[in-house]
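S1.2 Input.
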Amino acid sequence: MATHLHLAELTAEQFLDIWKHFDADGNGYIEGKELENFFQELEVARRGADVDPKNAAFREKMKDFMSKFDKNADGRIEMSELAQILPTEENFLLCFRQYVGSSTEFMAAWRRYDTDRSGYIEANELKGFLSDLLKKANRHYDDKKLDEYTQTILRMFDLNGDGKLGLSEMARLLPVQENFLLKFQGIKLTAEQFNTIFTFYDKDGNGYIDEQELDALLKDLHDKKKMELDSTGLVGYKKSIMALSDGGKLYRTELEIVLCREPLV
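S1.3 Output.
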């Protein structure tokens, strides 16, 4: 990994590689021990020698580094902050995050393109999806810029080249606080647990749940799974999830996508 940090310019894939390597728990932040490991790699790459993280000089350097790059001073680094540390060949992540209006808009745009509710959109639909997002955020862009974004995102997120882009991956374009999918990734419900929960809240067995039932379901998940959510967070997540619904009806497949697990076979 240190060799990546030697590079003056990184490709989009290398940037994502570094991110995944250091955000070990996948919560959208590099923090605590992850942050120390990241800074140690950075120092080794810069100096070409081992460094001692217990050393006072190391601590001082790390403090300076954080004051420069931790823009919101929360003691951890998120992807858009890291994008400033590691200059990518196309630093689009930074500007894209300023364009995405909200997770609700993101999900509403996603719903238009994931017509079979698989949790994926086809690569050939990506340009339309990004164009929709930019329109929702009232951002002006030209075709050249849109092509550039499309190609970069394809290189970053369609790593296996199957022409499909997953929602949980694409949601990395959202700022962390907007990316409610990250909150659900830690839940990892089994098919059996998911069925039990859905059946419990779909009282009349009509195959979908409404906003009130979703409210109860989220509160239940929050209590049982110790999700890091406050009441305002729950309201925001509910709104974002309902953006996937069909006229206020949230079907089983939509909820599967949100709970970040492979769709049931």
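S1.4 Remarks. The CA atoms of residues 208 and 251 lie 4 Å apart.
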